Structure formats: C-alpha cells, structure tokens
Amino acid sequence: MKHNFNAGPSILPQQAIDATIEALKNFNNTGLSIAEISHRSAGWDEAMDECRALWKELLNIPDGYHVLLLQGGASNQFLMLPFNMLQTKAAYLDTGVWAKKAIEAAKFVGEVQIVASGKETNYSVIPQYKIPSDVDYFHFTSNNTIFGTEIRTDPDSPVSLVADMSSDILSRPVDVSKYAMIYGGAQKNAGTAGVTFVIVREDALGKTSKKIPVFFDYRTHIKELSLYNTPPVIPIYMMKETLKWLKSIGGVKEIERRNKAKAELLYNEIDSNPVFKGTAAKENRSLMNVCFVLDEKYAGKENDFIELAKANGIVGIKGHRSVGGFRASLYNALPIESVQVLVNCMKKFTNIL
Ligand SMILES: *Cc1c(COP(=O)(O)O)cnc(C)c1O
Fold it and tell me: How far from 344 is each of 122, 259, 269, CA to CA, in Å?
C-alpha cells in the first residue's frame, strides 16, 4: 500500500477513481465511454447539474452565486479575474509563489497594490495587512501550497473579496457570502487536473467599462452553464464523484475535524522530535501542506530520510526546491493511518541516526 503525500496532483478517494473508471468504460449504461458521448446529451447534463448541486450543498453557497466549471487551471483565473473585475486598481496580498503569479497577471489589466509581502521571511509568515477601501477588489491565496502557510478565517473586507483556494477548498467550512469570487484548480482537494472551479457572485460582475473577450467573460459561462465550449468531461465526472465521497463521509465539517487531527499528529511529532523542525510560523501553519526540514546538525541526511520513507510506502514528501527539506500534503482523501506511518518513520529515523 502506498501513502500518497503528493502536493498536487494528489491523492483522491478510491471510490471516485473507481466510479470514473466505470464511466470511462460504460457511461450511465449507454454502452459508450464518457469520452465518446456528446456533452449536450441528457445524461451528461445531469452529471454536470449534480456536480454543481454538490458544490452548492457542501459549501452552503447562497443564491446569487454561480459555480462555473472551466479550463486552464487556477493560472488562467489569475488573468480572467482582473479582466472581469479590475477597473483601475486591485489590492493583493503577497504570500508566495502563487500569489506572485496572480499579481503579475493582474498587472496586464490594471494597477496592483501589494498590501503586504512575506518575502523577507521566505514566506514562512503571513504578514499583517489592511485591506484598502479604494480598490476594485482584494485578492489573497488562502493556502500557500509551497510554503505551508494558511489563512483559515474568512476576512472582513470593505471591497469585493477574492480568494485562490486551489489547495484548501473543501477542507473546512467557508462563509461564501463574504466573497465575490473563490476559484482554484481541481487537482488538490476537488478532483483531477483539467477542470477549474469558479464560484462567483453575479452582482460582482459587469462593473468594469473595459471590453472583455467573450471567452474571458464570466457572464458567457454563466449564461451557457459552462457549456460555451466542450467541457472536460472526465475531470468533471471525477470532481462530481470526489464531492459525492465528501458528502458521504459527512461533508466539510467532518473533513475539517479529520484534517485537524491529521495535522496535529504530524506537527506534534515535528515539534517534539529534535531531529525535525517546522518551517512555517506556528500561528500560520497550514493543515494541508506541512513543511519541515532536518535540524542543521543533520544537514545532508535528507535523502536518507526520503529513502527510509520510501521503504515504508511513503511517496511525495520531498519539499519544494524553494523551501527544501520535506513537505507532506495532507489533503482530504489522505487517511490518518498514512500520517501515522510517516510519524513512525520519523521516530525510526531518529533512533538510527
Ligand atoms: C496548484 C496551485 C495553483 C496552480 O493551479 P493550476 O491549476 O496548475 O493552474 C494555483 N494556486 C495555488 C494556491 C495552488 O496550490
């Protein structure tokens, strides 16, 4: 058995994988693969409706919001968002690599004010910030996948609030009503790469006087129910099955409880084992991506730990090159048993050092 700590694409619920395999062989007893049918057929309409309905139910999305299922990843939203909402100036919080990319994209459309940056601490801390009231919107990244920091509360904002939640969506309850838009790539907690979720409040749109290319205009995809062009049917199906699994285990409240237990188990070991050290500030630690290194005394032994982990079925714990060390991603589908195996490995490593 493998213990999959990959940062994304990452572990998925087995039942979502199995259901997607079945749909690839024989969709809805049509005798055809899901890859072979029209995206305008009745069976497909229902699958897409079910997927949107699950989003609304799981996150308690209020009326007035739309769930769009698009392509191009979160990266494409970095540009699509300012096209739709940036008239003059937008404010961004710089908390790492993905935030930075969102900032660079927005600069193509208008002025960007960076309210605070964690750069000086190599993004190990979420900096203090104040949201200005003279901007079109405020954008932040709720979970910094690479640096292992997370903003787990929904900020109060005097302007439209927008969040990239690629790597912690569906990991806990979110007060969607506070946001003008929430978006992300599916390949962490919501399925597989190829589909991008956008949850957008309709009345936040249509406020800029700039011309928006048709395909880049959210209103096009609202009107066409995300069928303006051919949708990525396989990733959407997988998303639907992933959401179904989440609902079946008790939804975001239950998964938050499990995610907290998993993170606590691993952070406790990091904090009590003198060989390991966490890299993110304690008060900003992510429940999704746990970043840690070896104490300086053991520098150069990283590969020994990776090898020991590998021998125990653990995959995907090498840290991102900009932080080094290790990163264990504890996404929704990862069972606590896998975290226990990792913790046991850390204890074993300490004993044989
Ligand atoms: C993975 C990730 C992205 C990039 O998503 P793509 O779908 O590959 O464009 C953006 N933001 C965050 C926070 C991520 O974790």
Answer: 29, 19, 9
